[in-house]
Every structure is written in structure tokens, then in C-alpha cells.
Amino acid sequence: MHFGIFSTIFVIFLFLVFSFVFTQSITASYFYLRSKDKILGMQALLNSFPAIILATYLISIWLVTSGTLLWGRNTSVVFAILIAVSMVSTECCYVIYLLSLMPLSKKGYRRGVVICIGVSVLLFGNIMLVIAATQGFTAQVFLFMISYFLPITMFLVVVCGIVGFSLAHKVSDLNKRHHLRQFSTICIVFLPFIILDITVARASIVVFTFAGFLGGSVLSFMYFSNYFYVNYNSDVEYSAAEAFYAQHNISQRERDVVELLLQGLSNPEIAKALFLSENTIKTHVRNIYKKLKINNRYQLINSMKTRK
């Protein structure tokens, strides 16, 4: 396998992309666990699969270039199955989430999900056939298989992204319309790189579709950051806060605690500011969370901002 300067630069680029995607996935996962926000959860999920694909590809490149003896048929098959599951899962998650945002009837959505799962199973079956039919399965064959199937898999995501973007104007809910346009754009960004992979003949490890993960991750990071800032910064209008307190029967003392929670103060700091014991503050916080059916201040902020 040819491994020249261009390939070396590509590997370095690939490692940087993996680092960015992995870091973003961990960050989104952390804030999802704190907020239980489905949008943040989807961000974490949609970044985890590309991170697995990138990590597996980088490891396989290392195994090829180092000539390690650890790479036998069993090891290569395990890597192949892992990458196949990651590719198909990435495609499936992107498509099903986009379908959930599109202006479809329940029947249309279910039909779309069934088609998506059917195509994914068919694609996975083809990959497994290639694995089963290949004699002397090696790391080189594995790398070739990724370069062949990854563009096909992501092309299905691009098609769904184009459809989603074209239907976004028909979505009446402004938030869903915004989410659909953003995620559709992230999907569409893969298109030029897939075209390069299909049209440009190459005899190296370079797979241009991987660059789509960088473009998609940058857009995803911008969207995720803006979404988190808008929904989880502690700037709450006074009138909205008063209506929120009245709606949930928040007492005056509990209001004082909420205002200090929104300022980012810890329980000991709140206790000192209100001249109360820390245990009393913990009791107030526990009562506030119980009334709102939440678990932490991230959910408190979001509850106050999304009050209906």
C-alpha cells in the first residue's frame, strides 16, 4: 500500500478530526446527562458513531504501517464488523432523526423508518458478504472496504438531508423547522467529498468522505453551542420569571434561592448570602426541584425559558 507524504498529511488531518469529533461528543454527552435535553442527546449520539469510525480507521492504518502481528483474520473481522455497525448506525440515526423533523404523517414517518431500516440491513448484509467472501482478510482489504462502503453509506444520508432541507419550509413549528434545516445542512456537507471519492481514482489510504465529518462537526458544534447558549444561559426576563413562580407555586424564599442558583452560586454560597444554614438551602433546593420535577440547575434554567 502506498504511504507517501500526502497520505501522512491525511493521517494527521484524520487524527485532528477524530480529536474534534470525540471532544464534541463527550461535551454534548455531559450536558445531555445534566439537562436531559433530547437535542443535546442527539448531538452526542450523532457524534459518537463518527468518532468510532475514525478511531477504527486510524487503528487499522497503524496496524498496516507498523506491520504488527496482532492483525490476524479474527482481529480484522472484528474491526470490520465494528466499522460496519458504526457506518450503518450513523446513517440510520441521521435519517430517522431527520424523518422525525419532517412534515410527515404518522403513517409516512413509520413507512420512512421501515425503509431506512430495510436499506440499512441490506447495506450491512452486503458488507458482511464481502467479509465472508474475502479469503486472507487483511488490514489492507479492510481499509479498501471502508473506502468503498463509507461513501455509499453517507450518500444515503445526503439524499435524506436534501429532502429534509427542501421540506423545511412546510414545517409550521419554528423550532422543528430550524432543527431540520440545521441537521439537513450538516448532512448535505458530505456531498462534494463523496463525489470526490467516487470520481477520483486513488491507490492510497485517503478517503475524502472523512473530510465531511470535519465540515459536519464544525456546523454541529456551531449549532450545539448556539442552542445551549440560547436555552441554558441564566438570563431570564423578570416578567417571565414572575409568571413561572406563580404557575409552580414557588414561595418567596424559594424565589430568592432560585435567583442565586441562576447566578451560579453553590449551596454554601447561597446559604451565606441568605444568612441560612446549608441544610436549609438544600431543603429549599430539593423542594424547588420536586415542584418542577427536575434534577439540577440546567433543567431549572431550561424550564424557566421554555415555560408555556
Main structural class: mainly alpha
Fraction of residues in β-strands: under 5%
Number of helices: 13
Give the C-alpha Rg: 24 Å
* Count of individual beta strands: 0
**CATH topology (level 3) name of the largest domain:** Rhopdopsin 7-helix transmembrane proteins
Q: Quote the average pLDDT.
A: 82
The succession of helices and strands, N to C, reads: HHHHHHHHHHHHH
Range of helix content:
over 70%
Low-confidence stretches: none
CATH evolutionary superfamily of the largest domain: Rhodopsin 7-helix transmembrane proteins
What does the largest sheet look like? none
What is the class of the largest domain in the CATH system?
Mainly Alpha
The CATH architecture of the largest domain can be given as: Up-down Bundle
Commentary on this structure:
This protein is mainly α and 308 residues long. The protein folds into 2 domains: 5-232, Rhopdopsin 7-helix transmembrane proteins, CATH 1.20.1070; 238-305, Arc Repressor Mutant, subunit A (Orthogonal Bundle). Helix content is 80%, strand content 0%. It has 13 helices and no strands. It has helices spanning 5-35, 38-66, 73-101, 106-133, 139-167, 174-188, 191-199, 209-232, 238-247, 252-262, 267-274, 278-292, 297-305. The protein is elongated and about 75 Å long. It starts with a helix and ends with a helix. The model has no long low-confidence stretch (mean pLDDT 82).
List the helices and strands and how they pair.
Elements: H1 5-35, H2 38-66, H3 73-101, H4 106-133, H5 139-167, H6 174-188, H7 191-199, H8 209-232, H9 238-247, H10 252-262, H11 267-274, H12 278-292, H13 297-305
